[in-house]
Automatic annotation (TrEMBL):
Keyword Ion transport: no
Organism: Pan paniscus (Pygmy chimpanzee)
One Gene Ontology cellular component annotation held by this UniProt entry: myosin complex
Annotated coiled-coil segments of the chain: none
Family: Belongs to the TRAFAC class myosin-kinesin ATPase superfamily. Myosin family.
Pfam families: SH3_19
Organism ancestry: Eukaryota, Metazoa, Chordata, Craniata, Vertebrata
GO molecular function annotation: actin binding; ATP binding; cytoskeletal motor activity
All residue ranges annotated as the Myosin motor domain in the record: 63-97
UniProt entry keywords in alphabetical sequence: Actin-binding, ATP-binding, Motor protein, Myosin, Nucleotide-binding
Alphabetical list of InterPro entries matching this protein: Kinesin_motor_dom_sf, Myosin_head_motor_dom-like, MyoX_N_SH3, P-loop_NTPase
Entry protein name: Myosin X
Amino acid sequence: MDNFFTEGTRVWLREQGQHFPSTVNSCAEGIVVFRTDYGQVFTYKQSTITHQKVTAMHPTNEEGVDDMASLTELHGGSIMYNLFQRYKRNQIYVQIG
């Protein structure tokens, strides 16, 4: 996989069949460390990371959207993360479609 990882990059990490919103903590000497927004830490050899395992997070997913149908990445992780972002801002009601 291409070396697009830099510290602080926001990504979706697919682990155990779920997408976790994560941040690249470090990428050095062929080892990449990810920290999920839920406090979990995952470490991988860079050579083993595929696009199915890690994808870059679109900026709108970081901020949250009003209409869930307008999410650029539509999977269970992005839906739950969007609801979490809205909950933190006390905007608990959303539109769908």
